[in-house]
Amino acid sequence: MTIWQLSSMLLVVISSVSPHPHHLFEYDELSQYVDSHQEEYVQTLRDWVAVESDSSDVLRRPDCHRMMDMTAEKLQAMGGKVELVDIGVQELPDGKTVALPKVVTAQFGSDPSKKTVCVYGHVDVQPAKLEDGWATEPYNLTDINGNLYGRGASDNKAPVLAWIHTVEVYQALSIDLPVNVKFLIEGMEETGSNGLDAMIVAQKDTFFSDVDYIIISDCGWLSRRPALTYGTRGNCYFFAEVEGPKQDLHSGVYGGTVIEPMTDLIGILDTLISPSGKILIPGIREAVASLSDEEWKMYQDIEFDIESFKSKIGVSQLMYSNKVDLLAHRWRYPTVTIHGIEGAFSGPGSKTVIPAKVIAKFSIRQVPNMDPAVVKKQVTDYLCSVFAKRKSPNKLKVTMIIGAKPWLADTKHPLYEAGKAAVKRVFNVEPDLIREGGTIPIAKTFEDVTGKSIIMMPIGGFDDGLHSQNEKMSRYNYIEGTKLFAAYFYELSLLK
Amino acid sequence: MTIWQLSSMLLVVISSVSPHPHHLFEYDELSQYVDSHQEEYVQTLRDWVAVESDSSDVLRRPDCHRMMDMTAEKLQAMGGKVELVDIGVQELPDGKTVALPKVVTAQFGSDPSKKTVCVYGHVDVQPAKLEDGWATEPYNLTDINGNLYGRGASDNKAPVLAWIHTVEVYQALSIDLPVNVKFLIEGMEETGSNGLDAMIVAQKDTFFSDVDYIIISDCGWLSRRPALTYGTRGNCYFFAEVEGPKQDLHSGVYGGTVIEPMTDLIGILDTLISPSGKILIPGIREAVASLSDEEWKMYQDIEFDIESFKSKIGVSQLMYSNKVDLLAHRWRYPTVTIHGIEGAFSGPGSKTVIPAKVIAKFSIRQVPNMDPAVVKKQVTDYLCSVFAKRKSPNKLKVTMIIGAKPWLADTKHPLYEAGKAAVKRVFNVEPDLIREGGTIPIAKTFEDVTGKSIIMMPIGGFDDGLHSQNEKMSRYNYIEGTKLFAAYFYELSLLK
């Protein structure tokens, strides 16, 4: 028996007399244990990153299934009460169906005298290929100067593992978990959490019945200062398909005789947004909640260095030159991004082809008080009317394949107060209160269906490169983040 | 000794007394020999198509080299005087260099009493992948109902082989070749015949010194009626690159803060051409030679069924609804095609990325009296001025990577009269006199450098699908085309 185990036993004994007194929280032991086991945590992350769980590519679906199995096995081995929940099938554009990755739920503890938290995370990833411009193999976690490079490292495998390791640390030190802990881990987040909404609705009165709080760590800090996140933008993701000839044509032989689908597509895409970033789709801007004076003041106070932001992404000029406009357009105004075109020539070199069918992929990040169903109609009507003016014989089909809602929390809620205390304990600073430009589609669903309070507690770095080449998670954020989670369990136990 | 060989000997004996009398041309023997050896010809084509000699992809360069070696070996085995001419290296965008495929030259016969023809062709191909929508493996020649499907089958491997087989047939039947035959076969045609111009200039007074006529068969018929081609469009192929952030960004995290390169690129591409096909780049339309009454009349008489053209390519409406406008815009007016965008998301599914660097590929088919150097300046100046108006901090780079000139011949030239006679003999019809919307970049160079007369004698079908999915060569065109070439050698020998 080591001195550590002894002290843990002591804590348990004392706890049973006076539950969770503040001064008795064994933070130092937990912290030291995390430090001394960091190589194991990095190795587990390496094992998880090695699985190419790209949920957007149905050919990778077996990897997604394997990733869910690995997650379930890990939680099972820790003694959790684990389920792999079947959430049905995904319908593909060609009418075929493919099984969705099962959702993993797990439970550690069911003490009715404790609060119950549910940690949400996902273990699917965005696509990544070495030839996209990665410096390292994207599915081989590579440590360079304390940064762990790999697809999904920060989004969202390391945060999920940090929560799992937190439970392990309490277990290893035989410290009673201050709260009952549930996990809900999915494998379709990157493509819109297909099937999860229905599963949450179905388990509203079972799995979620005793949950007090939902915690999400699928985001990142704004600077080197730790942050708590109180809002996210939604995402309406569109396919605009223009179809013309029945097959690709030689541009010499046919150029000048056919109305080219690519010209039509470029023409309608060019009407979405102005050079200065103004969204041109009627009705979109009008729906946005106006910026309050209080919010303006709050943005003024946030630690955010525009120059280092510019230098990090490597641009000489941003869309807005002052902090408030920039943060506001990042967090609480909608934006349109054209991601690319499927079906056109996209390789290196030259090809003299008239593509027969081209599909633009673009998305609109949306905010309160926009509504995805309304956005879908606004975009579809607008593009159809713009297209009609071209008098093209080609066929336009507009589809909204993702319609994820924005989410906004109250920063004065006790959940956030506990979060501030945990950050203060681990990092000895006050967290920034920030919003997230990206989308955590499930936040709004959790809120609407379960009625529970939600907090987003990020541990990812501000420069982790989510969704882009060379995504990474720093060892510092991974390890200190695990300590933050350990401290947060304790702070949550103090809530009335 | 067979009766065939006997008759051939007889021909040679008589020829030496009265060279090439019309009534003694052994067309029937040649024709029967071709028919009875067609399986061999198809097998050779299969062997050639199996080589993925995609000249646009430097990773395929070894296949291009192999293709040139196979061509040289074939001609060598037939007793030709063969050379593999080193034409230097290709400079890649990153500054590296890679060897160009050597040019194969060959010579059969050097009788000063005969005309000398030079057959030009190419054995490189456009890119092709099964997943582009091919019904069969593109590099495995597949015979379906008499159509031979495979990349490069029609463009240009079968026509090159048909000329080679023509020489073989004369040899096999021991019939003296009516003309001296030279071959010039290259491996960079699909990307602009890099290095060939200089080689032609260098060999002007050697290889080309005794050449009377140059024959090109790198095109196709307009309908089921055989055709002779008297003009081609040129091609100016552009890369327009817009570069912004130093790497791809998450569209949620960064959308709204950066000026996205894709939005800029779409914006400038949309200014190239109007929905009705009008080129918007100043100066382009003004340079085009006007349509003469004689030409208008000629187009009126050409066999061309708009309805079957529409149904072949599968569109309900063309850019022009009358035959003359349609043919004129196919052959003798310029057009802009946007082929695609490199660097953006192009896969199936969804990806929420802001691409950091995107490169549009577009080309302008140009015609007399446009000049590639002028077009380059017009396009670059125009796009830069359009881009400047956007006031974007991103960087635009416009490059013209191919600048191939148009070509136009005189249909009254004896070369064409001989062609008409050969078509009449084999197919028993008058050929259509047509132009080609595509580009045979080298035609203009041959004309300018060597001063020789050129004819284009296509054997490809009107529906061969050059540069697109399911390219094919029909057995009929391949085999009857070989007979046409055999007949043409004879007709050429009658020219004064």
TrEMBL record, chains A, B:
The record marks 250 as: Important for catalytic activity. Residues 231-384 form the Peptidase M20 dimerisation domain. SUPFAM superfamilies: Zn-dependent exopeptidases (SSF53187). The active site is at residues 124, 189. PANTHER family: BETA-ALA-HIS DIPEPTIDASE. Keywords: Carboxypeptidase, Hydrolase, Manganese, Metal-binding, Metalloprotease, Protease, Signal. It comes from the Eukaryota. Residues 1-19 form the signal peptide. Its cofactor is Mn(2+). Mn(2+) 1 binds at residues 155, 190, 467. The lineage of its organism: Eukaryota, Metazoa, Chordata, Craniata, Vertebrata. It comes from Salmo trutta. InterPro entries: ArgE/DapE_CS, CNDP/DUG1, Cyt/Met_Dipeptidase, Peptidase_M20, Peptidase_M20_dimer. Binds 2 manganese ions per subunit. Pfam families: M20_dimer, Peptidase_M20. Mn(2+) 2 binds at residues 122, 155, 218. GO terms for biological process: proteolysis. One of its GO terms (cellular component) is cytosol. This is Carnosine dipeptidase 1. The keyword Lyase does not apply. GO terms for molecular function: carboxypeptidase activity; metal ion binding; metallodipeptidase activity. Belongs to the peptidase M20A family.
